[in-house]
Amino acid sequence: MLRPLLSCLCVSLVVASASFAADWPQFRGPAGDGHADSKNLPTTWNEETNVAWKAAIPGKGWSSPSLFQNRLYLTAAVPNQADEPDGARSLHTLCVDAASGRILWDAEIFRQDTDAPKIHTKNSHASPTPLVEGNRVYVHFGHAGTACLDLAGTILWKDTSHAYEPVHGNGGSPVLVEGLLIFSCDGADDPFVVALDARTGLEKWRFNRSSDSKNKFSFSTPAVITVNGRQQLITPGSGVVNALDPVTGSEIWRVFYGDGYSVIPKPVYGNGLLFVATGYNTPNVMAIRPVGASGDVTDTHVAWTGKKAAPHTPSLLLVGDELYMVADKTNILTCVNARTGDEHWHERIGGNYSASPLFADGKIYVQSEEGPAIVIKPGKTFTKLADAGFKERTLASYAAGDNCLFIRTEKNLYRVQQK
Predict the structure, then answer these.
(1) Where in the chain are the domains?
(2) What integer pLDDT is reported at residue 79 of this predicted model?
(3) What is the largest CA-CA distance in the chain?
(4) Is the domain defined by 29-57+313-419 classed in CATH 3.40.630.30?
(5) N or C: where does the chain have the smaller number of CB atoms within 10 Å of the terminal CB?
(6) Residue 31 — φ and ψ, nearest 5°?
(7) pTM, rounded to two decimals
(8) DSSP string, 77-117
């Protein structure tokens, strides 16, 4: 663990700050839906324009940055000593000062040996996004384990008891609800969802997922919604989406969607409908009515299904009555009526896509894998406001702060803001 001498002093100064209104503490932001309250965000940036700072990040990782009390948290897989065989990785959590880009601390969490499973070319060994609440940071490395740290980088607990056989590596991020840290473990076989006591890391419940899908592996991040005053944990997997009681892990309802697998997008909820993407090989988007749902509601509670230009990887974005989705490889951005699934428009925007779109400051930001990004105006007609982006591979999603965006590329982390 690397610790600057002033680390403890920095913790005190940051915690003492009074204004943290723009925290982005988990994957897809405060509500987990890709919405930010940030204002005065830039609409254009490149290597020379609107860059407040650029910080080199060691190793490789596609975890999106989380922002909490003027600090950024992210994970990375750093090669071990140069003389060790390829595949040996040290799995790290880093804390970066949001004002300056300086790395405040760098903590090794796990050491991964040369038997580490192969990953997809679009994945990394550090892809799930950290989650920050109160004085704790929770980091997840899929099959390699999960850990909790304090804001100074001290490891409070580690859990390696929920290992599974991964396919293509790790991906889904955890959520925190009612003092439980919950994540999906959809590996090569016997997929399950698990809840750990956030204080201790001990298992509180486990739900064994069952479907007819031939491929069991998936990478989705759960969503927590409230239906008629009751919380539901929405967890998509291969062939099925399950709604669970987040406190007990008992199933409330389920919807099957055939042989869909490698499900990645995080669900979104609004207007009484839950929107779920169904994964490979042919992705669909399903709108499900969770009100009154109990047991298998595949034939009774699916409001509509859309098959055109559905995403494999980027999460869906709901803004008002419109649902936006970006297809990974066909580079088609689509807007549909969220209540009916009827298309308002679709547009080819170029590039390939992994990052989830962001809604902030009255605009929608869409980031391509190759580096370019576009900014559009929400609405029933396609209106492009600006082009932006760096000339660096970019698969991570944005974090939004006061007047700025934080963008992780393959080798760097940027703060962009209007100058």
Answers:
(1) 29-57+313-419
(2) 85
(3) 61
(4) no
(5) C
(6) -100, 0
(7) 0.93
(8) EEE--TTSPTT-EEEEEEEEETTT--EEEEEEEEEE-TTPP
